[in-house]
Amino acid sequence: MMQEGLDDGPDFLSEEDRGPRAVNVDLQTDATLQVDISDALSERDKVKFTVHTKSTLPNFKQNEFSVVRQHEEFIWLHDSFVENEEYAGYIIPPAPPKPDFDASREKLQKLGEGEGSMTKEEFTKMKQELEAEYLAIFKKTVAMHEVFLCRVAAHPVLRKDLNFHVFLEYNQDLSVRGKNKKEKLEDFFKNVVKSADGVLVAGVKDVDDFFEHEKTFLLEYHNRVKDSSAKSDRMIRSHKSAADDINRIASTLYTLGTQDSTDLCKFFLKVSELFEKTRKIEARVAADEDLKLADLLKYYLRESQAAKDLLYRRGRALVDYENANKALDKARAKNKDVLQAETTQQVCCQKFEKISESAKQELIDFKTRRVAAFRKNLVELAELELKHAKGNLQLLQSCLGVLKGDT
Amino acid sequence: VCACVRESVCERERESVCECVREGVLFLSQSPEAACLSAEDISPSSNGPRDDDPDDLFAEATEEVSLDSPERQPILSDGPSPAITPVTPVMISPRVDDEDEEENRDTFDIQISVSDPEKVGDGMNAYMVYKVTTKTSLSIFSRDEVCVKRRFSDFLGLYSKLASKYMHMGYIVPPAPEKSIVGMTKVKVGKEDLSSVEFVEKRRSALERYLLRTVKHPALLKDPDVLQFLESSELPRAVSTQALSGAGILRMVNKAADAVNKMTIKMNESDAWFEEKQQQFENLDVQLRKLHASVESLVCHRKELSVNTASFAKSAAMLGNSEDHTALSRALSQLAEVEEKIDQLHQDQSYADFYLISELLGDYVRLITAVKGVFDQRMKAWAKWQDAQVMLQRKREAEAKLQYANKPDKLQQATDEIREWEGKVQQGERDFEQISKNIRREVGRFEKDRVKDFRVVIIKYLESLVHTQQQLIKYWEAFLPEAKAIA
């Protein structure tokens, strides 16, 4: 029964949430194509996103329109980019993670079961908190899906992609089914081959200093971001647990205050009130750290993987080019199928050079974006931490003033 | 010469027991055959009429002492170290009534510290020895500064003596800290790790609080066992400490609770104050336990937060190292430094959480068990009084029967018995009234102390929270320009 209240599908996004959220990415959006997620609906298993487009481009029938999309359709779009050879030289914006409300749902269920064992106030309080948590996860998944679309829309080449336009405009179900078992198995093997290849490719020293440096850098950076992301998650979870404890302490102090026969009753009530307020601030600190730090790291974990994928594709193209060169030499030596070998070699050369050229720019842009995103988020993190610490301090000092004055 | 501690003060020649009128407190000898109490020496300010027959008084006491529980025996052994007398005085007249108590508080000048834990011996026979330092200007002490060495079982021994002497009179005796087999085994085995260091510190602090609470009690402060504990360089080893744990003693003394449950006559509470207070303490007990559990959880999570923050700090430093944009790299290193300082802050805060709040709550949970025990003692006193009345009635009926049967010698015996039981009924009533009076006073004192303790500790705790926030502000203010400097 807990579910029904949330699955009614009310509009979870308040007015203030409309408009591009671009949380972790500093993007220049221009008037020719603006994409955002204007609405979202949470149903039992799925989330329905309303994708809203404003464009002056001639490709679209209207200047402003909306469609409803689900997570699988985002994945389909992302995969179509990855599989497109034309885009081999670009960093494909990482796919948004699947919306995961399981943990939150489980907690709400447990709360429902434990209803009998706590007081009405406690139950209401916990329910409110869990609902807030659910809402926060919901908002995050919306933001992550939106960022993906915005990245595509901001990319000079990808924004012109036909599949992207279909995604934005076609107002019927795209009928993209999730991958079936066979396809998932194929994917799995592809990834295995890729990692084996990755080792091979990574071993070959690149002639170009820029790419050699990028390779070394990205391999190490990706691993460290992964580690930092995991550790920041753990840190923030502990913070939330501590805030929950303070919540319980505040409740018990309140009960003590109402029961006590001595002068302590007023004392307890005042301290209980204080802890209620500081607890809310602590919870906000954890939430802000989550948004500004944890999410940032998670996002760059995915982006650095996408950059690594680009390097891999270039590496593959280089290997193909070198093989084609060797084949050409052999053909010339044997004087057999020389023309064919020449053509193949030409194609490989062009492919490699095209990828290298765009990859260089992509990687430079990646760095610029990364630095800008980190700057924005670290500044905001520090500002929020300061704001909350000052808020806490003020509450504590005013309460202490009252308590000391009472004696 | 009397063998009591105050040899220099008391010149009375007594076989075993003396009473120093000046202090108005009964000193007991060390000898196992404690027998007579000289009735004439009993302090004039005692409440209620005294029985003229000292032997009877003690007979009373011995009866009092032999409770249904056999566990009583080991503690009161007359064996090798007669550390306590097997007889408890029926009345230690509470010379201090409310006005005196205020006076005493103003002149309360005693400082006790427990320090320098030292391991003695090796392996499973090893134990910790603590230095107990007493600084005071009070006259009952022989010097104004004394240092002695005591081990944990000595503290338990002290508590068991005090509990058996005073609890049945309605005095709230502060319980000693709990035994911990796991904690001590680690220390014995010689693990020099953080957890055993923390354990020893936790115990040292608890022992100090225990002694301070004990001497804060005006009657306990003057008790010879307490004085001996604080001053005597050699203390006879408390035997059978296996049987003694703080909780064990309370359980034993609270056997009264079982007796109460088995009472066939339900106590008719004529005094609403007692019923109300009992209910209040019951509620307080529930809430304090709940609060204690939540605070322990907070301590745990804050420690976890500290560890995870340190771990994140290291990770951020590594990330900063591999970042190839110079300004961002520097900012990330700075972030790592900030987080490292914050992790230390969390750790310090968790210590404050623990030592200030958690331990206080733990102490009070144990204290309230002692308070509840004292209420049960009163019920037991009431039951005894009622039983005596029933007995008296029976004896009267028996005498009436014998009157008709014309057996003169038996009649005489019956009449004697009636007189005996009349005395017991009177004594029972007096005891009950006395314990009721004592409890009222004790509860008043306890509540005053509770209010003071909680106020002081909570204010200190809030101040620690203030400090943490001020430090946080300092750290983040230092970091902000670094973040902004990323270009």
UniProtKB/TrEMBL annotation, chain A:
One Pfam family matching this protein: Vps5
UniProt region (Disordered), positions on chain: 1-22
Record's keyword terms, sorted: Protein transport, Transport
TM stretches of this protein: none
GO cellular component annotations of the record: cytosol; endosome
PROSITE patterns: PX
Signal peptide positions (record): none
Biological function: Involved in several stages of intracellular trafficking.
Protein name: Sorting nexin
Naturally occurring in which organism (per UniProt): Cyprinus carpio (Common carp)
UniProtKB/TrEMBL annotation, chain B:
Region annotation Disordered: where it falls in the sequence: 39-105
One GO CC term, this protein: lamellipodium
Skewed-composition ranges (Acidic residues): 52-66
Subcellular location field: Cell projection, Lamellipodium; Early endosome membrane
Domain PX, first and last residues per copy: 108-237
Membrane topology category: Peripheral membrane protein
Keyword tags: Acetylation, Cell projection, Coiled coil, Endosome, Membrane, Phosphoprotein, Protein transport, Transport
Annotated coiled-coil segments of the chain: 411-438
Molecular-function GO terms, alphabetical: phosphatidylinositol binding
InterPro entries for the chain: AH/BAR_dom_sf, PX_dom, PX_dom_sf, Vps5_C
Chief location bin: other
Domain of life, per lineage: Eukaryota
One Pfam entry name: Vps5
GO BP, one annotated term: protein transport
PANTHER family per the UniProt record, alphabetical: SORTING NEXIN (PTHR10555), SORTING NEXIN-2 (PTHR10555:SF31)
Role, per record: Involved in several stages of intracellular trafficking. Interacts with membranes containing phosphatidylinositol 3-phosphate (PtdIns(3P)) or phosphatidylinositol 3,5-bisphosphate (PtdIns(3,5)P2). Acts in part as component of the retromer membrane-deforming SNX-BAR subcomplex. The SNX-BAR retromer mediates retrograde transport of cargo proteins from endosomes to the trans-Golgi network (TGN) and is involved in endosome-to-plasma membrane transport for cargo protein recycling.
UniProt similarity note: Belongs to the sorting nexin family.
Protein name: Sorting nexin-2
Lineage start: Eukaryota, Metazoa, Chordata, Craniata, Vertebrata
Gene that encodes the chain: snx2
